[in-house]
Structure formats: structure tokens, C-alpha cells
Design brief:
The chain is built from 15 helices and twelve strands. By secondary structure, the chain is an alpha/beta fold. It has two domains: 141 residues, D-Maltodextrin-Binding Protein, domain 2; 139 residues, D-Maltodextrin-Binding Protein, domain 2 (3-Layer(aba) Sandwich). The strands form two sheets. Strands 1, 2, 3, 6, 7, 8, 9, 10, 11 and 12 form a ten-stranded mixed β-sheet that branches. Strands 4-5 form a two-stranded antiparallel ribbon. The two termini are 28 Å apart. One of its GO terms (biological process) is polyamine transport. GO terms for molecular function: polyamine binding. This is PotD.
Length: 373
């Protein structure tokens, strides 16, 4: 899975500036996605736990973080490890991290704020030893921030049409022929079609979904390109009128400057979450460590609010808060504070069985080759 992230905070110090000014011995090393931890939040933590309490090591992509987890596990026992105390990974990789024994279970009793986390975010990190979502499983990660798959469109083009996109079904309208870009990803494209047909993104047996192939064929006729990385550029240039992308890519500033708007589809969408995990080789402790302090610190209401605004993502903690306790700019942003009814209809992308994965891959191959019947 590929997602792109941008730090949206205005006037924020860069994380590297903060790290460079920290001369003391570091007690906690955390590997993170670049731009995912605002300097203001890092500074607050250091003020509370000590200037040398934490060092953040940024990586460019989530896949780089997962690969570093794998490399750390493959080192010979006699070789010194430079493994971090905590690593950020996307929820998509949690299944593989558990299966490969790259990480260890965590103890939520060490986090006072765990009980304030919405149950959906607690459940997504509760897995069995095969990495499958399991209500009887252990807690393997701590959710840090989340986002969703959204529809982004050019306001000027839709003024002429007399309507604006509200839901996935709008992507099938004939006036959008060759005007749309979709992610180059099977789970996203097949998933939004499943959602349009009233099914889950996690549908295991595609053969039982009536009209799925015919719906995908109709949608394919409206697609100008499949792109997971640079889809905003043709939208801004007017080569496309509508794109399906990620909430993290489309800040209010980007929307305003380029005449764009974004909407979370009413029938529900795909959710994702970035997680804190502890590498398997890190020594565990029955008492709260600095790593546990960092996890819990991120869930403090004031901190959660700040990181949501500065990173253009959603701390799951704010979803359980009284909206009147949130800044107006946050509670009135439907991408950062989605409608609860839409959230209930949305899905995290859960692991699929090998047989289900094969079905998705085969159908995706047909879509990309234009050979749907």
C-alpha cells in the first residue's frame, strides 16, 4: 500500500531542527514517517520527560519503516542492534509484522488513556498470533492517527454540471467519462465498487457479489488514469475532474489554492491508521516505560487536537470527544472530524485469506487489462 503524507502545520519547526538541538543522551528512539510528528508535540513531550527523552528518526515512506523492522529481526544474535524502541507502521502491515514475529504484544493497562480510545481503533489492533483480527487476541499496536479514502474534485467543473459528488455512485455518471483518476490498487477500486453495491471492503468471496464485474466495467469506462501517487497534478491542471485519493493529501490550503473540494462518501469508505509497534527484540517491562509514556502522551486531548490540526490527520481520541471541546477549524472539517454515521459504515482493510487475495488479484488483472466481460 502506498500513501503520501504532508505536514500541514503553518510555521511549524522541522523535526530535524529540534533533534539537532538536543545534545543529551537519548532514552527513547522512535522511527517515524517523515512529517508525522509535529515539532510542537515533540517539544511538549521533552518538556515533561526531559530534553533528551526522545529521538525521532524519520523515514520517507511507511514501507521503509516496515523494511527496517524486517532488517532488524534478521540480524545475527551476536551483532549489536540499532533497533528503535518504537516504530510507526501502517495498519496494513500489522498482519505481516505479527506473522513474521517482528513485533511483540503490548500491555494497554500501562496506558491510562487507552479506555478513551474508540472501540473501532482498539479492535483493529487486537489480533491473534496469525495477525488476524480477533476479539480474544492480544493488543499488538497503539493507534496514533488515522485518515480515509475520499473523493476530490474540481469545483469549477461541477458548477457547470449542476451537482457535486456525494457518494461512490456518482463515479458512474456518464458525464464523467474519461474524467476520473483512481488509485492503482485492487483493494481500493474493487472496495469502493463493493461499497456502492452495499458490501464491505473486506468481502471475502467476490464470486457471490452480483453484478460486480459489470459495475467495474462501467466504472472503467469513466477512468482516464490509475495513479496512487501523482493524481492531484492532473486534477489541478484540469486533465481530470475527479480523483479518488487520501484525506492526508488534501488540506484546506491545497483545496483553496487550487479550486478543489473533498468529500467522504456517504455510504462509507476505507479507513487507515498509523500505529506504534514495539520490535520483538526490545526488552519488555511490567511497568510503564518511556515508550508507553509516549504512546499515552499522544492521546492527551490537547496533544491529540494539536497533532490532528498540524498533520492533517485524525487522532482517534478526538472522535470520542465532545465536538464543542474542539477548535472550530477541526470540528467543521469533515475530513478530520468525519460524520459519525459515515464512520460506522466505513471499513478498515482487514487481512484476507490467500484464496480471497487471489480473487482480488485476478479481478484486478482483468480491470487493468480491460478484459472484463
Amino acid at each position: 500500500m502506498k500513501r503520501r503524507f504532508f505536514l500541514q502545520g503553518i510555521g511549524a519547526l522541522t523535526l530535524s531542527q529540534v533533534v539537532a538541538g538536543c545534545k543529551q543522551a537519548v532514552a527513547l528512539t522512535v522511527e517515524v514517517l517523515k512529517g508525522s510528528v509535529p515539532a510542537q508535540v515533540a517539544n511538549k513531550f521533552r518538556q515533561q520527560f526531559g530534553r533528551g527523552a526522545v529521538n525521532f528518526v524519520p523515514q520517507t515512506q511507511l514501507k521503509d519503516l516496515f523494511e527496517r523492522l524486517e532488517k532488524g529481526q534478521s540480524k545475527p544474535p551476536t551483532q549489536p542492534s540499532s533497533q528503535a524502541n518504537l516504530v510507526m507502521i501502517g495498519d496494513f502491515w500489522l498482519h505481516s509484522a505479527i506473522q513474521q514475529k517482528l513485533i511483540q504484544p503490548l500491555d494497554p493497562k500501562l496506558w491510562p488513556a487507552w479506555s478513551q480510545l474508540p472501540s473501532r481503533w482498539q479492535n483493529i489492533v487486537q489480533r491473534n498470533t496469525q495477525g488476524e483480527v480477533d476479539p480474544q487476541g492480544q493488543i499488538w499496536a497503539a493507534p496514533y492517527r488515522s485518515g480515509s479514502t475520499v473523493i476530490i474534485y474540481r469545483v469549477d467543473k461541477f458548477q457547470g454540471l449542476g451537482w457535486t459528488p456525494k457518494d461512490w455512485s456518482d463515479l458512474w455518471r456518464p458525464e464523467l467519462r474519461h474524467r476520473i483518476s483512481l488509485p492503482d490498487q485492487a483493494r481500493e477500486v474493487i472496495g469502493l465498487t463493493l461499497k456502492k453495491l452495499g458490501h464491505s471492503y473486506n468481502t471475502a468471496d467476490l464470486s457471490k457479489v452480483k453484478n460486480l464485474e459489470s459495475e467495474l466495467l462501467k466504472l472503467h469506462q469513466n477512468i482516464k488514469l490509475y495513479d496512487s501517487n501523482s493524481y492531484l497534478k492532473p486534477l489541478i491542471l484540469g486533465d481530470t475532474w475527479l480523483a479518488v485519493g487520501w484525506s492526508t493529501d488534501i488540506s484546506p490550503e491545497v483545496q483553496y489554492q487550487n479550486g478543489l473540494a473533498a468529500v467522504v462518501p456517504q455510504s462509507g469508505t476505507a479507513l487507515w491508521s498509523d500505529l506504534w509497534v514495539k520490535p520483538a527484540e526490545v526488552q519488555s517491562s511490567p511497568t510503564a516505560t518511556l515508550a508507553d509514556n509516549w504512546i499515552d502522551f499522544c492521546w492527551l486531548p490537547q496533544v491529540a487536537t494539536q497533532l490532528s490540526l498540524l498533520t492533517g490527520t485524525t487522532s482517534p481520541i478526538i472522535l470520542g470527544m465532545n465536538p464543542q471541546e474542539l477548535p472550530q477549524s477541526l470540528r467543521e472539517n469533515p475530513l478530520l472530524f468525519p460524520d459519525q454515521a459515515i464512520l460506522k459504515k466505513s471499513d478498515f482493510l482487514e487481512p484476507l485469506s490467500p484464496n480471497s487475495v487471489k480473487q482480488y488479484q485476478q479481478l484486478w488483472g482483468k480491470i487493468r487489462r480491460g478484459k472484463l466481460q
